[in-house]
């Protein structure tokens, strides 16, 4: 669609000024836009990913180690009356080290806060250690637990904590259903609630270094064979200060339109693990998992792919398309492939058929370790 064009530098700068004016007027408080300058991605010595919430929990999960990556289940709770909960959603706890200096980042917040808060407690995670927050995209199964998390832990977080989001359409109203006339409300990420919690939000439409250890891809270029598979619809515009500012990146005629969601704002979170290569975390991969990895390679200058992790949104993929996508993933030659959330059992089966032992499955509560 001609309406969904990549933001040019001149338009980006004009939009930045417009957003700054809106922020000054109080309409979009606590919103910033990441610098468009090139980044120098840092290298980390170690990285661990704790799966706080995923769409499945396996009580018989077995540890595994492949190509320098290890994965193990969480310890059983001491109180047998309590257990980890899973739901349709994703939340990841990212801990990295560089020469002994540690950083902790939280990526996504599951669908509901009760599940998220339960698992944070049982896993013994300490929100006071968080250096930054990231939200991958504007779907409720990735931000739904955020407000409840902030209600409980905002006082423990750094006073100037920043939430790194993708593009402005994170804040659009989304609907779900088979088509026009059959749509139901699917939530809106509310910037007013973030402002009330004193959360500074930065739109990472360009690649952005986070907490000195991680980096985001910025808007993901779409140049592979992948396509956006059916999911939500998006409504452009602002009503009662709720929604997305269409003047930021779309032509005026899109105001009030409800169209299939193209996920312009989605970004991936990445680490460059020293001597091993990129760990690319795609929370849902609506933009395409191959596209996401290629974007990470392009913006970092690092070609070696150590791991591809997260949701790939290939559960609804037809078999012929799935086979081709997995083959394209294979060409990236990752050391490991770790599907989660919306990737789909069909994807796991096809990936194992083509990539064998490189495919590691995970479960809610498990810990994945990379590096020395």
Automatic annotation (TrEMBL):
Keywords: Hydrolase, Signal. InterPro entries: DHPS-like_MBL-fold (IPR041712), Metallo-B-lactamas (IPR001279), Metallo-beta-lactamase_dom (IPR052926), RibonucZ/Hydroxyglut_hydro (IPR036866), TAT_signal (IPR006311), TAT_signal_bac_arc (IPR019546). The keyword rRNA processing does not apply. It comes from the Bacteria. GO terms for molecular function: hydrolase activity; transferase activity. Residues 120-164 form the Metallo-beta-lactamase domain. Residues 1-36 form the signal peptide. PROSITE patterns: PROKAR_LIPOPROTEIN, TAT. NCBIfam families: TAT_signal_seq (TIGR01409). SUPFAM superfamilies: Metallo-hydrolase/oxidoreductase. This is MBL fold metallo-hydrolase. Pfam families: Lactamase_B.
